[in-house]
Design a protein that fits this description.
single chain, 388 residues, alpha+beta, five-stranded antiparallel sheet, 12 helices, binds adenosine-5'-diphosphate
Length: 388
């Protein structure tokens, strides 16, 4: 036989097989649909009630076919096409159908490799004579938020207790040393130091809770980024002088963003003060402003670089968490609270921006605050036009 003829016959055979499989599968799906419609449990009323629920809800027929699934159920992947979405759920449905006993508990669904399994809180019960009803909720997000809140409250109490304890011990020491003026003066100095630490901590906690509220921006105005950088340098100059660190404003470009200038200055001065605190004496801290385009959008980047102690890759992931410090002693000695970077991150997010770090232990760090650029008319030029 000619190879061309053999090829044509082969292709025809393959076509026939594909068409046959397609027809059989359509027939099966159609039969399931008819079964679903014919099932008295999946009445119009039951479907409407299921569609009104916030939880995921799915009704499964006697042959494991899906009779109905509401939208939250689809989002939770309770169903995959006309079948039950995953094996652990299917096993539980069969168990409940066989025993008739309602199940209340969690069911794990493996996600893609490396990701945490999704834990669904479920209620599974036999409904009528021929169906099983599944109600499911993903409570892992709620549980995560609750855990973060509990952590925060525990950390705040711990952080506040330390300076408050120190204040009361120092007050007692002053009382005991009432006939030694030199000692009284020394203790009074330390009392002042501890009370200003406490004030700083309370202020930062207030800042942080405001930044976590629904609308954290105090004002929305056109902000000249160069002014923000200058303000941050001014605020940090004294600390830099004390440690003989040079603050250098290197590259600047004329750039504007929309936001709250004081919050932005807070963010940049937190970065500058960290750069000073975690560098050796007589080091250099450099600030620069750049305009960048990423995925078609224009951004302004403020970079703060130091050649200080640096941060290891594992720690880099954690430093933006509240109260996290790599070296507790060094942070405390420098007047740190462990809240600075988490405030910076919240300010960045409130402005639709982001914060990232590049760092190498022993070489230094660069923190980059990226903000969406203001693209309207140049405010300085508009001011000139108005004056004329
Ligand atoms: P802190 O008040 O302790 O400085 P932050 O939230 O500002 O708290 O920073 C968290 C931790 O990140 C710091 O305790 C420090 O260990 C580390 N860190 C921050 N900035 C730098 C930097 N420029 N160089 C090295 N380590 C840094």
């Amino acid at each position: 036989m000619y190879p061309a003829v053999a090829g044509i016959i082969g292709a025809c055979l393959a076509l026939v097989v594909v068409a046959f499989v397609h027809i059989v599968r359509r027939g099966l799906v159609r039969r399931r649909e008819l079964e679903a419609r014919g099932n008295p449990v999946a009445s119009e009323e039951v479907r409407t009630v299921m569609d009104l629920l916030h939880s995921g809800a799915m009704l499964v027929g006697p042959h494991d076919e899906i009779l109905h699934v509401n939208e939250p159920g689809v989002v939770l992947s309770l169903a995959r096409g006309s079948r039950v979405g995953f094996a652990t759920l299917l096993d539980k449905i069969r168990e409940v159908r066989a025993s008739g006993v309602t199940y209340r508990g969690s069911i794990k669904r493996e996600m893609h490799p490396g990701a945490d399994p999704l834990e669904l809180t479920t209620r599974i019960a036999v409904l009528g004579e021929s169906a099983v009803l599944v109600i499911a909720d993903d409570e892992s997000t709620q549980r995560r938020i609750e855990a973060v809140r509990r952590d925060f409250v525990a950390n705040i109490s711990h952080e506040l207790k330390t300076p408050i304890g120190a204040l009361s011990v120092l007050a007692e020491a002053v009382e005991a040393a009432s006939d030694d003026p030199e000692a009284v003066q020394r203790f009074a100095g330390r009392l002042q130091h501890e009370s200003s630490r406490l004030a700083e901590l309370v202020n930062q906690i207030i800042d942080l809770s405001r930044l976590q509220s629904e609308d954290p921006l105090l004002s929305r105005e056109i902000v000249d980024v160069h002014e923000v950088v200058t303000e941050a340098v001014d605020r940090s100059q004294e600390r830099a002088d004390n440690r003989q660190v040079s603050l250098i404003v290197a590259r600047t470009s004329h750039a504007y963003v929309i936001g709250d200038r004081w919050q932005l200055a807070d963010a940049v001065s937190n970065l500058v003060q960290n750069a000073i605190n975690y560098s050796d004496e007589r080091a250099r801290v450099t600030l620069s402003i750049l305009q960048v385009t990423a995925e078609g959008d224009r951004f302004v980047e403020i970079k703060v670089s130091d050649n200080g102690i640096g941060i290891s890759p594992e720690e880099q992931e954690r430093i933006f968490e509240r109260f996290y410090r790599v070296d507790y002693g060094r942070s405390r000695d420098a007047g740190g609270t462990g809240l600075g970077l988490s405030i910076v991150r919240h300010i960045a997010l409130a402005h639709g921006g982001s914060i990232r770090v590049w760092s190498r232990p022993g070489q230094g760090s660069t923190f980059t605050l990226r903000l969406p650029a203001y693209l309207g008319p140049d405010p300085q030029e508009s001011a000139l036009v108005e004056e004329n």
